[in-house]
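Priority: medium. Attachment 1 of 2:
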């Protein structure tokens, strides 16, 4: 018959193997968790870098838009000043009241179109003034 000592020894050996197996299971599970944690840290770093790059692009775009708006306002101001100067210069001028011949008007419009087309192709060109 099986005596109590052999049962106790069998239980002790089984407990030892269960303990070793459970320790191995915990070690493997811990390694898997560490790998996942590192993956998530890397992914978070990638998203952080993407966010920084997007914020930098946003700042560059806002700066460019602000510069463009400043140039537009300056151009409008200049046009307004030139119109006032022209109005003042023509106020008492008899010639200014005479109609301009159609041929001259057509040539002037063609010249303006050519100048505007050239300016539009130029780098950092000032946008055309609205209403002109």
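Attachment 2 of 2:
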């Amino acid at each position: 018959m099986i005596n109590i000592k052999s049962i106790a020894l069998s239980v002790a050996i089984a407990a030892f193997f269960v303990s070793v197996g459970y320790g191995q299971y915990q070690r493997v599970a811990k390694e898997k968790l560490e790998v996942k944690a590192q993956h998530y840290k890397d992914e978070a770093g990638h998203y952080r870098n993407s966010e920084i790059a997007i914020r930098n692009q946003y700042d560059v775009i806002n700066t460019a838009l602000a510069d463009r708006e400043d140039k537009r306002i300056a151009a409008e101001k200049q046009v307004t000043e030139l119109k006032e100067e022209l109005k003042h210069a023509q106020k008492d001028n008899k010639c200014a009241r005479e109609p301009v011949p159609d041929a001259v008007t057509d040539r002037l419009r063609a010249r303006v179109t050519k100048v505007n087309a050239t300016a539009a192709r130029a780098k950092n060109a000032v946008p055309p003034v609205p209403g002109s």
